[in-house]
Amino acid sequence: VRAHEDGVAGNAMLDPKAAILSTPPEIWLTSLYGFTTESWGFLGFTDPKMRTGLLNASKPGALVVVYAAGKAPEDLRGKVLGVQQVSHRIGTKWDFLSPDRIEAERANPEKRDKWLHAVKLTRRWRVPPECRPNIEEFAPETYSAKNARAIGSRCMRLTPTEARRVLDLDLVEIPVFDGEPLEPQLPGPATLVLSPSRPGPVSK
After folding, report:
1. What is the pLDDT of residue 204?
2. 129 vs 80: CA distance, rounded Å
3. 172-184 pLDDT, tens per residue?
4. pTM for the model
5. Nearest-angstrom CA–CA distance, 20 and 24
6. What is the number of other CB atoms lying within 10 angstroms of the CB of residue 93?
7. Beta bridge partners of 120
8. What is the DSSP string of 46-68?
9. Helix, strand, or coil here: 137?
10. What's the chain's Rg over C-alpha atoms?
């Protein structure tokens, strides 16, 4: 409550650049099949222990870099797709999924029980398609084939050097389902685009 009342002065993690430059960095790596935004307002975990592990190790406002997993469309695989900012508000995916996607998710036996344990997102930034680096180049210390499963299931913290590479990306902020209204944005350097958000209403 105090963090939202006092804005960035009460919680520096509302400033994404503070997450990148903190010691250790409050920036993590995960893999997804895509980067849907308007209808998917959460970071999901199939195992609740993995969600608990991230929440215990991170602070509200931490960032998560997303790259495309092996089951993503071929032209996306291994590419850094974007960055998302997480709250510490938890629920199920049905709490943070848009109504037009709920029926399809419930009807698909392969997806119904996956990513069920959710952490609500507050903001998202997409890397324009023509600017997406390969994950091997972006996070050579954290990413490896042997780490891929752990990264996808529980997230892994980036090293300070890798975290600062986020500032070299071109990003565009995009809407999050059930998030703050957002006017259409243009891509730009991360150093300019990653400005602090206005404190929103406190979750009850």
Report:
1. 47
2. 9
3. 999 888 877 777 7
4. 0.87
5. 9
6. 23
7. 42
8. SSHHHHHHHHHHS-TT-EEEEEE
9. helix
10. 16
